[in-house]
Amino acid sequence: MPELPEMENYRRLLCKQIKDKTITDIKINRDKSINVPISEFHEKVTGQTIVSIDRRGKHLLFHLQNGFYLLLHLMLGGTMYLGSQQDQPRRTKQVIFDFHNSELFFIGLRLGYLHLLTKEQVEEDFKELGPEPLDPSFTLETFKEIIGKKKGKLKLALVDQKFIAGIGNCYSDEICYHAQVLPTRKWNELSEEELEALFTSIKFVLNRALELGGYMEMPLYKLDQLTGGYNDHCFVYDREGEVCNRCGQSIVKIELSSRKCFYCLGCQR
Q1: Does residue 259 carry a catalytic annotation?
Q2: What sequence ranges are listed for the domain FPG-type (predicted)?
Q3: Among residues 3, 6, 132, 174, which one is catalytic?
Q4: Which of 2, 131, 133, 183 is catalytic?
Q5: May I ask the CATH class of domain 140-264?
């Protein structure tokens, strides 16, 4: 599932490609991917200019000229491609936006969605999301405040969107590795030094992943050479049985509350 770095990478690239462009036509192949009748979606979106593209956690938010918003959550298996009928990927597209000289394909929205919302509805959807970890307002003091008296395991809290927005399965493991703590540790067992290390690692890992284009495998458009660059730079995620680049010990995989979890046997304590 795309996490903060993947969605922020998409946001930045799409801003360069489709911001201030007009949606000239729409094709909806799966009505369950949207939240209103197809006729209403067409009426309120076709002919609208994309004023801005924002991100909140794992969501993208397309702000339309008429004041409505399109809220995108790709969920598991979702992706996008900006191109043409000639270079489009051979995958099922649930929604297609036409921008006259290019098309934006929303792919794999079997679990994901593209919802048409008012500003008030967006605020309602976002009201329980935790803070943005890359926002300057997310400080060490803020981090310690939201931890409060947590007693659960690190990974399970890090993937909780009400705790911190945007972190999922991949980067929770990467953060724990960088901080040299086991993802199975409990919050109330951590020292002050370990809490500070975790905070530093959240910022470092997410920024590093963003600089490398995240882990999405498919480029966003034909000449996109950034998206997916993180795949070759994972510390532990999806590296079961491989050697840790820091200490030389083996990387293991376990299940933690039905989530796959990767860590190093040697240098995470």
Answers
A1: yes
A2: 235-269
A3: 3
A4: 2
A5: mainly alpha
Tokens coding 202: 């959240």
Residue with tokens 């680049």: 245
Say which of 55, 58, 93, 155 is annotated catalytic.
58
Complete edge-to-edge strand list for the sheet that includes strand 69-73: 50-56, 59-64, 69-73, 113-117
CATH class of 4-126: alpha beta
Active site annotation includes 3: yes
Can 219 be counted among the known catalytic residues? no
pTM: 0.95
As a whole number of angstroms, the distance between CA 29 and CA 21 comes to 23
Alpha-carbon torsion (238, 239, 241, 244), positive or negative? negative
For the chain, what are the domain ranges?
4-126, 140-264
Is 144 noted as a catalytic residue in this protein? Answer: no
178-203 tens-digit pLDDT: 999 999 999 999 999 999 999 999 99
